[in-house]
Write a structure and sequence with these properties.
With 303 residues, the protein is α/β, with parallel strands linked by helices. It contains 13 helices and 8 strands. The protein has one domain.
Length: 303
């Protein structure tokens, strides 16, 4: 697979990255100018719903929004994120990840790979400071997630500094009602339900591109800071749709459609809501913005 194709895999994983992880490295330098991420307002006669495209990992200390985002949060009575961001949900996620991601008896991780691929895996885990064989007890999707997350942590990206968690802290401090679109079990089952060949491909690409992940995520993070929806659509959504159709359907299309059912019900009432979900769910032909427009709602980008 090409480097551009790999960006689609990284983007798909980053969109769903919600595991609670501890950071252990110095952060890259934070941005020096105000960020301008994607923020949209969906309106009907008596409701407003702000849709904010997020990234789930950020360098420690980096900003998570600008004045317009904070004003939209202040205006809203309810804030929705993909998951509830609390210690109980974090613990549930970690327990479920270990349960769902554990290898089946007699089928260790090495059995999914060739001898050459296993040698490459051992080189990578050694470089990342993991004991040799540390991933052997896991299924390919779990190992692939680990190989995606670990280089980012080593490079200074901190899930606790992710936009979603920062918004959750902001909402809690302001006494907002916090709501979630999914549960930890739902999110992890998206990966656990992938067929064997998709899991194997995920693992192979994670091995092949582990060294390049921080650079790739850095490029996507820069596009997010600029609010460059077209660049994000190309690298996160379209590559996944064309090269990984099953993953696209599972991680993007099906989830977007399910969320729209919830969000349109919310719009049938009145008031102001703020929705913070991965940017890959906001943009593109099947994204929330396009779906709201197709349903006849007034949608504008907040600049």
């Amino acid at each position: 697979m090409t480097g551009d194709g790999m960006k689609s895999f990284v983007g798909a994983v980053a969109v769903l990255l919600a595991l609670s992880l501890a950071s252990c490295a110095q952060a890259p330098a934070a941005q020096s100018q105000e960020i301008a991420p994607l923020l949209y307002a969906v309106r009907d006669d008596d409701s407003t719903m702000y849709i904010y495209g997020t990234v789930h990992v950020r360098p420690r200390g980096s900003d998570w929004g600008n004045a317009r985002v904070r004003a939209a949060l202040d205006e809203s009575s309810e804030i929705w994120t993909e998951l509830m961001m609390d210690p109980q949900a974090d613990q549930q996620t970690q327990v479920l990840a270990l349960q769902l991601g554990r290898a089946e008896p007699g089928r260790p991780l090495s059995s999914w790979l060739t001898a050459e691929e296993n040698a490459s895996l051992n080189e990578i885990t050694t470089r990342l400071g993991m004991p040799q064989g540390a991933l052997e007890p896991f299924k390919p999707w779990m190992a692939a997630l680990t190989l995606t997350v670990a280089p980012l942590i080593q490079a200074g990206y901190d899930p606790d500094s992710g936009v979603d968690r920062s918004i959750d802290r902001y909402g809690d401090s302001a006494g907002k009602t916090m709501r979630a679109l999914e549960t930890p079990e739902m999110q992890l089952n998206f990966f656990a339900g992938l067929d064997d060949e998709v899991q194997r491909e995920m693992l192979r690409e994670a091995i092949n591109e582990a060294e390049n992940l921080p650079r790739m995520i850095g490029e996507m993070s820069s596009a997010w800071e600029r609010g460059d929806g077209r660049a994000l659509e190309r690298s996160v959504v379209e590559e996944t749709r064309t090269e990984y159709p099953e993953m696209y359907r599972t991680l993007f299309l099906d989830r977007n459609n399910a969320w729209m059912e919830q969000l349109t019900r919310e719009m049938s009432g009145s008031g102001v809501d703020f929705i913070a979900v991965g940017a890959g769910h906001v943009i593109g032909r099947d994204g929330l913005v396009a779906q709201f427009r197709a349903r006849g709602y007034r949608v504008e980008r907040v600049r």
